[in-house]
Specification:
The protein has 276 residues and is α+β, with helices and mostly antiparallel strands. It is built from eight helices and 15 strands. A hairpin with a 7-residue loop joins strand 13 and strand 14. The longest helix has 14 residues. The two termini are 32 Å apart.
């Protein structure tokens, strides 16, 4: 069977593309999507069998809408990858920072590099849809006076000169990406030690604390908790949590109890913890 391409948000040279090269294969074919919604559509329309999606960054926090995209479309997380994000400032050959009047990049990249540009008040920061796409446009349109914030891979692919390396404010900068499929895949339970779960609770005192106690009692470690408001029910929230565990039996026990105690309990994914 011919393997289908993997969908990414952005184009070749983007950080999503780097994840594909590292997690799957450096030669893996990709489908370039400019939005996460388009990426999801490739899965739902069976153009792809799996996609790479950023879920949270160690500096900027969660990409909250992506939790809803996975949940609302009944998709499953089957793996994760943590990528060290190093932002490079790049422009056409022969350009200097003094000659740059505008820097274009994804809003999150601009946010992560904001401190660097305090020393260059003449530069205007402009939001764009994708880091690598800006690099590609500068190269193809021979845009002088404009720089991009993107990866070293983008600079290499599009022939740009790096003006400054690792310009992000916090040098230890990681983004967590998840591998998403239409349905769960069969895995050896001994290899599964992390899960992503969703549930809702009654709006009453101690309801969340009770669930957290269940996780603790069953020897599960809570690594992430994120709340999202339920649009159709004001002041009611859904909780998205990530848990790690040493044995699948401990997880199974916690899952069965939570299914009884919480409303609309759902497993979004079971996979191997990439932090180990």
């Amino acid at each position: 069977m011919v393997k289908k391409p993997i969908a990414i948000q952005g184009i070749k040279g983007s950080f999503h593309h780097e994840v594909v090269q590292n997690y799957f294969d450096s030669q893996a074919e990709v489908v370039e999507c400019m939005t996460f919604d388009n990426e999801i559509s490739t899965l739902l329309e069976h153009q792809t069998d799996e996609i790479v999606m950023a879920l949270e960054n160690s500096i900027a926090g969660s990409i909250i809408p992506n939790y809803a995209l996975i949940d609302n479309n009944q998709l499953c997380i089957v793996g994760e990858y943590y990528l060290d994000i190093q932002h490079q400032l790049m422009a056409l050959e022969g350009q200097s920072i003094a000659a740059i009047t505008e820097v274009h990049s994804h809003p999150m990249a601009l946010l992560q590099c904001k401190t660097f540009f305090r020393d260059f008040p003449h530069i205007k920061l402009v939001e764009a849809k994708d880091t690598a796409d800006v690099a590609k446009q500068i190269s193809e349109q021979n845009l002088k006076g404009i720089a991009a914030i993107a990866s070293k891979t983008a600079a290499r692919l599009y022939g740009l000169n790096i003006l400054a390396e690792s310009i992000q404010t916090i040098k230890e900068n990681e983004t967590r990406f998840v591998i998403v499929k239409r349905e769960m895949i069969d895995k050896d339970e001994s290899q599964i030690n992390k899960a992503s779960l969703k549930f809702e609770l009654d709006h009453k005192r101690g309801s969340l604390a009770t669930i957290l106690n269940v996780l603790s009692d069953c020897k599960l470690n809570l690594t992430k908790i994120q709340s999202l408001p339920k649009i159709d029910t004001p002041w009611k929230y859904a909780f998205f949590v990530d848990v790690t565990f040493k044995t699948y039996n401990d997880y199974e026990k916690a899952k069965s109890i939570m299914n009884l105690m919480a409303e609309n309990f759902k497993v979004l994914g079971e996979y191997k913890n990439a932090r180990l």
